[in-house]
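REQUEST FORM: STRUCTURE PREDICTION
Request ID: SP-0412
Submitted by: Lab K.M.
Chain count: 1
Length (residues): 253
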Amino acid sequence: MQCCLLTIEAGFCCKTVPPSCQKGLKGLEKECTMFSRHFEPAFRGQNGAQDLELICLGDSLTYGYGVRRAQCWTELAAAASGWTLRNRGVCGDTTGGMLSRMRELLREEPGRRDERYFLLMGGCNDIFYSGRREGAQENMAAMVHQLFAVGETPIVALGPGLGGVNYPHSWLSLTDFPAAEALVRDYEDWLERFCEAFGVRWIDFRRDFRDAAGRARTELYLDGLHPNEAGHRMMAERVARVIAVMEREQMNA
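STATUS: Completed
RESULT:
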């Protein structure tokens, strides 16, 4: 199946199941499967009564390490979209920590399944600490399927990738960054295949942090690992575009 032009432009994709739930988009939009009923909340947007919420679970890329709170992508995207974005990033955390915190949140705050989404972005720290990507893959898959099991809607974010230069000096004794760069690329490629296989929306931040030749746009990085304020603005713009596409899709359903 091909994704509609709107989703391609926004930098995310969706794949739906079952075929009975598929609906074609008209005009310039190519055939794209829409949400199954499992994924269909009532969208209200900025002018509606329902407060739609995106819970952002992650590590320092979500927390906004090194930038002012007001300049973090979650704050900027919330202002642009009218949604509530809850920043649940923890610097240095792994996907195992994210999985544990997600379970706690679900226990503490049940019953908002038609009003909220979970945005999951993590895995780099798993690779930095272990030199492997398998643990991150297992935990991300577990989070997605556990959210599905309780009627919640996950969205997966593919991080910006590594900047290739100016890595924190204190990390150099812990991490083989050239090897980690390749593992992160393989991990994010796997995440994309995983989302395609299981009908999960994803947001691809890599597009904003690479030039046409695939090289890292180092001017968007603070230290080779974390986006600077300009990078956070790019991320916020992409998230806001994805939210707008989700709203338009539901209006056309």
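NOTES: The two ends are 18 Å apart (CA to CA).
Reviewed by: T.R.
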